[in-house]
Write a structure and sequence with these properties.
418 residues, mainly beta, Immunoglobulin-like, Methylamine Dehydrogenase, Chain H, 2 domains, 4-stranded antiparallel beta sheet, 45% strand, globular, disordered N terminus
């Protein structure tokens, strides 16, 4: 028997883990992906070290539907940072002082002479088609003014390891690294310390970005994200709600940003960093970088061979579809089934003895039992709900979805046919 309330059921959607990131690709052999970056909505690169294998560069031209293995001829290089000059021209930096370049969409990668065989070059950026900067270990900064054909050193004045570089224009740029942020306003001729706050001399400010001439962020250890609103003059430590180290950060606009890091942690802000809430990645992998090609389509590289993708900004909207309160948990068959590419799943949450919300988890698995995505992991008020799973980035086949809430557990089968 169903009980009816005389009031309208209200669902307060918490963004805690209502998210939809799914595995876009898993590369073989196993490799630790370092970075993913896109030039436009379709064209992207990701990099990794594949020891004993030359194919440590991967390229897509169809938004991740397919990834093509590419090689620069190295079998033991840790390629780290990517910069696109155009859809066909790109640079990748790595260890042993190596920078490689392609001008034909990766058909060939050519090693650029940097005059260095020991530095790990963690960051690279070109401010135009001619002028580029790179940074790395031991306080190393180098610059090119001839499309990367030759590089010359710049003096940083420090020995800190540098992790990231970001130029706003040809004159003004920033570098982040081991407990330091440097700034130049004269195209790298001189650099000054921005005195960013740190909590350990070994703290790694991993990635720095600027949204305009004044507003910037960097991601760091122990869940720390730090913000400036006056071009590095002052810095504010933000409250992120996590202690997991953050490796990548990306802002879609002035208000909405994403950061990712250890233990599969993704955090999101929609109010310019004032508050952050977690999204479920569906994995415990280390998440190494994040990049968005639109307000809703994003990619994350992982330490364990995977690229994650979202096409809805990571959000799954769970809709209440009835104000009647069920007397028991239930999970209905998805519809349509078979489906392509999306399907709806309906489930019911009863009232408990205290009329409180119930912890509800809805997970999709493949036929091998691997978790594909977590659709719901939230406390929900009593009612009947419906959630949509978009499987556009998954292959045809049989999948299972499981609803868990307290002692209740039910699993059903669905078929994706493309």
């Amino acid at each position: 028997m169903k009980k009816s309330f005389s009031i309208i059921l209200l669902l307060f959607i918490s963004y805690t883990t209502l998210s939809q990131w799914s595995i876009n690709v898993t590369f073989t052999p196993a490799q630790s992906l370092q970075s993913v970056r896109f030039y436009d909505a379709n064209t992207g690169l990701c990099t990794a070290p594949v020891y004993g294998n030359q194919f440590n560069i991967h390229r897509t031209t169809n938004a991740g539907l397919n990834w093509v293995n590419q090689t620069a001829g190295y079998t033991g290089i840790r390629f780290m940072s990517i910069w696109f000059v155009s859809a066909d021209t790109a640079f990748i930096s790595g260890n042993n002082g190596i920078i490689v370049k392609t001008v034909n969409a990766g058909q060939n990668w050519i090693t650029m002479p940097t005059g260095d065989t020991t530095t790990q070059i963690w960051g690279i950026q070109f401010v135009n088609s001619f002028t580029g900067f790179a940074c790395g270990s031991m306080g190393r900064i180098i610059k090119s003014t001839d499309r990367g054909l030759t590089w010359f050193p710049l003096s940083s004045g420090v020995q800190n390891a540098f992790s990231s570089i970001f130029f706003r224009n040809e004159q003004t740029g920033y570098i982040s690294g081991s407990a330091i942020v440097l700034k130049t306003t004269n195209a790298g001729t001189t650099w000054t310390n921005c005195n960013a706050p740190y909590f350990s001399g070994f703290e790694n400010f991993r990635q720095i970005i600027f949204l305009d001439d004044n507003t910037g962020y960097f991601a760091s250890d122990a869940g720390r994200i730090v913000k400036t609103t006056n071009a590095g003059g002052n810095w504010t430590l933000l409250t992120t709600g996590t202690t997991e180290s953050m490796f990548g950060i990306y802002f879609i606009n002035m208000n909405t940003g994403y950061a990712c890091g250890n233990a599969g942690k993704i955090i999101v802000t929609t109010d310019a960093g004032a508050t952050w809430f977690p999204q479920a990645s569906g994995t415990t992998d280390i998440l190494t970088s994040v990049w968005f090609t639109s307000a809703t389509t994003g990619y994350i590289s992982t330490w364990f061979s995977k690229i994650l993708k979202t096409t809805n900004g990571g959000f799954v909207f769970v809709e209440p579809i009835s104000s009647e309160v069920p007397d028991k948990f239930s999970l209905e068959q998805n519809y349509p089934n078979p489906f392509n590419p999306s399907t709806k799943i309906k489930f019911a949450v009863p009232s408990d003895v205290r009329s409180e919300k119930s912890n509800v988890k809805l997970v999709v698995y493949d036929v091998l039992g691997n978790e594909i995505t977590t659709l719901v992991n939230e406390k929900l008020a009593p009612g009947t709900y419906e959630v949509t799973w978009d499987a556009a980035n998954h292959p045809s086949g049989v999948y299972f979805y499981q609803l868990k809430a307290g002692d209740f557990s039910e699993t059903k089968r669905m078929t994706l046919v493309k």
